[in-house]
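User: Could you go from structure to sequence for me? I need the amino acid at each position, not a summary. Structure tokens:
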């Protein structure tokens, strides 16, 4: 159960990072480094999400 909650939290963090990055892009334009930092955070969260999903399926906690 804890793994599913953790996966949901990482996914929500990814969506939040996506929204923040879009907001930074609209407000700051193309010169901002905040868009790049937001992208880096989103990629790191995506890697973490894939690792958690792989872990869950390997252990059989997520498989049906």
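Assistant: Here is the amino acid at each position, in order:
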């Amino acid at each position: 159960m804890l793994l599913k909650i953790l996966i949901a939290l990482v996914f929500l963090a990814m969506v939040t990072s996506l929204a923040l990055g879009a907001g930074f892009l609209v407000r700051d334009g193309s010169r901002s480094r905040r868009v790049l930092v937001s992208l880096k955070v989103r990629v790191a969260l995506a890697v973490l999400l894939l690792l958690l999903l792989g872990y869950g399926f390997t252990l059989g906690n997520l498989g049906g």
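One structural detail worth keeping in mind: DSSP finds two helices and no strands in the chain.
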